[in-house]
């Protein structure tokens, strides 16, 4: 069966389907490599937390160029189908059968280079918070450490994820030189479990009189304090800053 025809020959239905399958395979392989690297980075974070005495939280510090993986991962769907005769998917008339091999080689080279860059450069930096302070690590070593009294501000806010109805509590502590400690609850973590995990930190911040800035808290209080008894609810309110001095006091 012949579907379409251009200057360098005819393309069968099998060739067109093969083009789509090849594009899917290239993207799937790229995503799989990124998933493996992401898992390795999670393991590195867990190791950093395990090496910190009294750890209460840990987070990855991502590279600013991580967004490049999105357009690179979509590149096979922009180029490959047209190389195999799919109507309307050829970016330029010259991108046909005669240049299929070099274009595919260049595409695989770009995707491999991007995956290699992510594998070698991501996951190198982490932040770990403990009851004593925060350590920012790089390549397995502590690059900088600060105590909680050195913090410049506590920011507590209620965030709506991806325009959904889910309310997420965001708890960050700012330090000099733009450093931040991320102490927010995990995605599946309850308010009770979270406050028991980080409760020593708000107490230290309160004693150090670190300014607090809280925004849009009623919805998060309702979501995270729901089902708590009176004592736990009062403790939860203390953890999110009801006993901390407001900014400007």
Helix/strand class: alpha+beta
How many helices?
Answer: 7
Helix share, percent: 40-55%
Number of domains: 2
| Beta fraction | 15-25%
Parts with pLDDT < 50 across at least 5 consecutive residues: 243-249
* Mean of all residue-level pLDDT scores: 85
What characteristic shape results from the CA principal axes?
elongated
* Terminal residue distance: 78 Å
Instruction: Characterize the main sheet.
Output: 4 strands, antiparallel
Give the neighbour order of strands across the main sheet: 3-4-5-6
Give me the strand/helix succession: EEHEHHEEEEEEHHEHH
Q: Give the radius of gyration.
A: 25 Å
What is the β-strand count?
10
For this structure, the quaternary state is single chain
From the structure above, extract its key features.
45% helix; 2 domains; disordered C terminus; 7 helices; 249 residues; alpha+beta
Question: Would you spell out the secondary-structure blueprint of this structure?
Answer:
Elements: E1 2-6, E2 9-12, H1 13-50, E3 55-60, H2 69-83, H3 100-121, E4 125-130, E5 133-138, E6 141-147, E7 153-160, E8 167-174, E9 180-182, H4 191-198, H5 200-207, E10 212-215, H6 218-224, H7 230-242
Parallel strand pairs: 7-10
Antiparallel strand pairs: 1-2, 3-4, 4-5, 5-6, 7-8, 8-9
Helix pairs in contact: 1-2, 1-3, 2-3, 4-7, 5-7
């Amino acid at each position: 069966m012949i579907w379409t025809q251009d200057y360098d020959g005819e393309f069968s239905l099998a060739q067109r389907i093969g083009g789509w399958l090849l594009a899917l395979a290239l993207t799937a392989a790229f995503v799989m490599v990124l998933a493996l690297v992401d898992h390795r980075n999670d393991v590195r974070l867990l190791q950093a937390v395990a090496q910190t005495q009294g750890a209460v939280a840990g987070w990855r510090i991502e590279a600013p160029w991580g967004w490049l993986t999105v357009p690179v991962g979509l590149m096979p769907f922009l180029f490959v189908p047209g190389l195999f005769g799919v109507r309307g998917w050829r970016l330029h008339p010259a991108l046909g059968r005669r240049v299929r091999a070099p274009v595919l080689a260049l595409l695989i080279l770009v995707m491999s280079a991007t995956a290699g860059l992510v594998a070698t450069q991501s996951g190198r930096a982490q932040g770990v918070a403990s009851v004593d302070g925060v350590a920012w690590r790089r390549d397995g070593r502590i690059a900088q450490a600060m105590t909680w009294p050195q913090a410049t501000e506590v920011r507590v806010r209620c965030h709506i994820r991806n325009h959904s109805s889910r309310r997420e509590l965001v708890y960050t502590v700012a330090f000099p030189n733009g450093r931040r400690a991320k102490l927010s609850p995990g995605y599946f973590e309850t308010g009770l479990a979270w406050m028991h995990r980080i409760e020593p930190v708000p107490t230290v911040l309160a004693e150090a009189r670190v300014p607090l800035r809280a925004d849009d808290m009623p919805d998060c209080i309702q979501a995270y304090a729901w089902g708590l008894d009176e004592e736990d609810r009062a403790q939860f309110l203390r953890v999110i800053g009801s006993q901390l001095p407001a900014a400007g006091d």
